[in-house]
Amino acid sequence: MTYKWALLYIERWLTAPTMQEDESIIARNRGTPQGGVVSPILSNLFMHYTFDLWITRTHPDLPWCRYADDGLVHCRSEREAEALRAELHDRLAECHLELHPTKTKIVYCKDGKRKATYPNVKFDFLGYCFRPRWVKRLRDNTMFCGFNPAVSPAALKAMRSTIRDLGIRHRTQMTLADIARQVNPLLRGWIEYYGRYAPSALHPVLRHVNQTLLAWARRKFKRFAAHKIRTSRFLQSIAKNNAALFVHWRIGMTGTFA
User: What is the DSSP letter of 104?
Assistant: First the structure.
């Protein structure tokens, strides 16, 4: 069962006033301000006692994990998951919290051995999408259906948005080295985190970076303005001779400029 909590309030821990967008001040007598330095610490302390210790005590045989207000619990049957959801609802209500009404759901971890039909067979957790996938068995290179993680569509969309927000396509005063210094820390973090499982799922966002470089080059150099294929060959040549310039070029993502 997966769950997402909506934190209603944490009383008497922090009473800092909140500034609105119009710079007006609203007095606060309960809860923690969003973005506050100590808010994550206080929330995790509260959830440690509200959830972590509770489920360890009441269901010591069920594997679980939690990160901030996201978490999941592995159950052995749908009936057990339904019962746990009801218990968790009551437990959180006692602590003035509630389960998220739409993001809390029971998911069937369907794979090659679990073949039943259920409406929910995937969920997102910490930027990964867990769902049935065809994967290769290392010992004999055969394919089988497993319930495995890969970067989620929402995370890919957010990464593409981050690249677009940099405005690289229109910053023709920059050099490729300038762009690399700005983009490489982002790419390095994404590849290190999301590339650990199913790294090929990152290819769409890495291709988006290459296409952004293509658009930048066509605006920067007049000789390439009307020649997309020529621009692509130009960048491919640079990538071949200087693969260390961009992080994703180092891992072979050099041939997808067109």
Answer: -
H/E stretch holding 144 reads strand 143-151
Q: Going by C-beta distance under 8 Å and a sequence separation of 6 or more, which residues neighbour residue 54?
A: 91
Query: Quick one: residue 126, left, alpha or beta (phi over 0 = left, psi -120 to 50 = alpha)?
Result: left
Mind listing the pLDDT tens digit for each residue in 81-94? 999 999 999 999 99
DSSP state of 91: H
**Following DSSP, what letter does each residue of 21-77 receive, concatenated?**
TTS-EE--SSS--TT-SSHHHHHHHHHIIIIIHHHHHH-TTS-EEEETTEEEE--SS
Where residue 192 falls among pLDDT bands split at 50, 70, 90?
very high
Torsion angles phi and psi, residue 161, rounded to 5? -65, -40
Supply the pTM of this predicted model: 0.81
Distances from the Cα of 54 to the Cα of 49, 60, 68, 85, 248, angstroms: 7, 10, 16, 14, 44
In angstroms, rounded to a whole number, what is the distance separating the alpha carbons of residues 5 and 96?
11
Of 147, 255, 243, 159, residue with least CA distance to 198: 147
Residue entry with tokens 């071949």: 240
